[in-house]
């Protein structure tokens, strides 16, 4: 995901997202209340190899960051490759690419979410935003047009996608917990606040925090602790208390 469009996705809760959908729901969004986050500047060097993801068998997804026009909100684009003992497979330009249990999921520069497995690429969504949150075969991402970003869920094994938030725009920076719930940021009330979507679809606001994710890199969630980057650097938050803790 690019350093300026940190965020993400959808329309009706639990509704299937068509690839041709282009108008995210806006009926419940107050544009006058939306305070878009300050995005942390990426420190990744243009032309340098960056590891996008790695797998336990040694396979790696590697990207080379392309130059970005100065003074614009252009997307952060990588020329990506899959490197493994079997050789090198060129994936082409991507905004993000991650391993899932059944293959690779990526977002291309046209904001198309693609599932690649067994040499076949399947288009999933045309309004996707990077970064992608992944756990096993579960993928959560943002979709929509700024500022109407909501969150969507992809079950990579089946290719089925559904909305998991509605009326939380802008919703962004998702992270998947071990119990399948998703912690994300919503600025619908005018300032960033962490929320949690549980597996049954219920959404709760979490304890207020002094800092919130605002980076092109997806936050990481482990045992109730959310590690992320913002304009001040890297931090870890206990999501139950909202306090900064040691990683």
Task: Give the SSE string.
Answer: EEEEEEEEEEEEEEEEEEEEE
Determine the mean pLDDT.
Answer: 84
> From the coordinates shown, what is the CATH architecture?
7 Propeller
Number of distinct helices: 0
Q: State the name of the first-level CATH class.
A: Mainly Beta
Q: Gyration radius, to the nearest Å?
A: 17 Å
N-to-C span:
24 Å
Helical content (DSSP H or I, runs of 4+)? under 10%
- Provide the spatial order of strands within the biggest beta sheet: 1-14-15-16-17
Number of spatially distinct domains: 1
Largest sheet: 5 strands, antiparallel
Poorly predicted regions are 1-41
Give an overview of the whole structure.
The protein contains no helices and 21 strands. The chain is an all-beta fold. The chain starts with 6 loop residues before the first strand and ends with a strand. It is 0% helix and 45% strand. The chain has a single domain, classed as Methylamine Dehydrogenase, Chain H (7 Propeller), CATH 2.130.10. Strands 1-14-15-16-17 form a five-stranded antiparallel sheet, with no helix packed on it. It has a four-stranded antiparallel sheet with strand order 2-3-4-5, with no helix packed on it. It has a four-stranded antiparallel sheet with strand order 6-7-8-9, with no helix packed on it. The radius of gyration is 17 Å and the shape is globular. A hairpin with a 2-residue loop joins strand 6 (96-100) and strand 7 (103-107).
